[in-house]
């Protein structure tokens, strides 16, 4: 009787053993998959990116603010390392910086070319190597870039010309303080302005002085215009930093800035104060585009599509709205 019972239980034990073995195998597979997924998630989370920014110059307060705002944006993303170079206003040095960043195999290159023509070959090579290129405010002469982020400089200049012409009642002389003459921003800000004046034959440009977006250069060039007895009723300054320099030069020469119609671009704190006090008539908001650039870079790094051009809004600031809109810095 005992033996019969033992024989009848043996097949059941074998079945349980097989079931137990299958469970162990299944648990092992699930555990292995979980480990692999965990490693994949950890690998994705721990992945580091290098973003290079070949900046034109840090001697310009607007460009320093641009870099500082980018640093602030990328600090929110510890997986991104930002490398910033300063070409010191030297186009050849900026091209070298672009090439060096490409040699370091950055994941994305950001730049704002001081010279849109001479920078094009180097930027094109980087782009064709497969490194995404984000142009911030300035462009090049080819389409070999991923995204351009900028306000519409030509449109801003056109509006500046119309504003000055109307304020002068269609008759007067304008001193133009131009930015970096080889930069596409300055080219567009000059072309748009000059084109708008065709509708106002009584408005003449008495001189165009290159002040390179620097207040120190603007002081020198405005002093030169005064010494040369160049007649001007208005100053079209292609940046507010240069407008600051122009006002200093005017005061030094015993001329009140209130006697001249001064229009700038950027809308920095000093411009706001000058508009408040009547020492500047208007400014056009020109954001650093740092936030928009960071957003585009993040999309690129995560494999998302990005537009070829991102237009950033600009608006005119006068006494009518100066208290309603905050300066860019």
From TrEMBL:
Family: Belongs to the bacterial solute-binding protein 2 family.
Subcellular location: Cell envelope
SUPFAM superfamilies reported for this sequence: Periplasmic binding protein-like I
The entry's keywords: Signal
Domain Periplasmic binding protein: 51-303
A GO CC term assigned to this protein in UniProt: cell envelope
Highest taxon listed in the record's lineage: Bacteria
Protein name, UniProt field: LacI family transcriptional regulator
Keyword Phosphoprotein included in the entry's annotation: no
Gene Ontology biological process terms in this record: transmembrane transport
InterPro entries: Peripla_BP_I, SBP_2_dom
GO molecular function, one term: carbohydrate binding
Keyword S-adenosyl-L-methionine: no
């Amino acid at each position: 009787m005992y033996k019969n019972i033992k024989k009848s239980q043996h097949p059941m034990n074998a079945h349980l053993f097989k079931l137990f073995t299958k469970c162990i195998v299944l648990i092992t597979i699930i555990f292995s998959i979980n480990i692999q997924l965990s490693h994949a998630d950890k690998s994705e989370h721990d992945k580091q990116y290098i973003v290079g920014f070949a900046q034109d110059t840090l001697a310009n307060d607007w460009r320093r603010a641009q870099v500082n705002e980018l640093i602030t944006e990328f600090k929110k993303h510890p997986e991104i390392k930002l490398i910033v170079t300063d070409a010191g206003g030297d186009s050849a040095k900026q091209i070298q910086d672009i090439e060096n960043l490409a040699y370091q195999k950055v994941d994305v290159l950001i730049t704002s070319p001081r010279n849109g023509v001479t920078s094009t070959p180097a930027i094109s090579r980087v782009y064709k190597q497969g490194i995404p290129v984000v142009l911030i405010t300035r462009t090049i002469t080819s389409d070999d870039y991923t995204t351009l982020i900028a306000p519409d400089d030509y449109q801003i200049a056109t509006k500046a010309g119309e504003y000055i012409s109307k304020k002068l009642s269609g008759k007067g002389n304008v001193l133009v303080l131009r930015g970096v003459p080889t930069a596409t921003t300055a080219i567009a800000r000059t072309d748009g302005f000059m084109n708008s004046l065709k509708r106002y034959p009584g408005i003449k440009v008495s001189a165009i002085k290159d002040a390179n977006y620097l207040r120190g250069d603007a002081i020198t060039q405005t002093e030169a215009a005064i010494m040369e007895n160049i007649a001007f009723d208005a100053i079209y300054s292609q940046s507010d930093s240069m407008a600051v320099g122009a006002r200093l030069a005017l005061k030094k020469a015993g001329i009140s800035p209130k006697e001249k119609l001064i229009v700038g671009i950027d809308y920095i704190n000093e411009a706001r104060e000058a508009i408040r006090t009547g020492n500047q008539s208007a400014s056009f908001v020109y954001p650093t585009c740092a936030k928009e650039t960071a957003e585009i870079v993040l999309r690129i790094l995560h494999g998302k599509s990005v537009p070829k051009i991102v237009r950033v809004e600009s608006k005119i600031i006068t006494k009518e709205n100066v208290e309603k809109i905050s300066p860019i810095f």
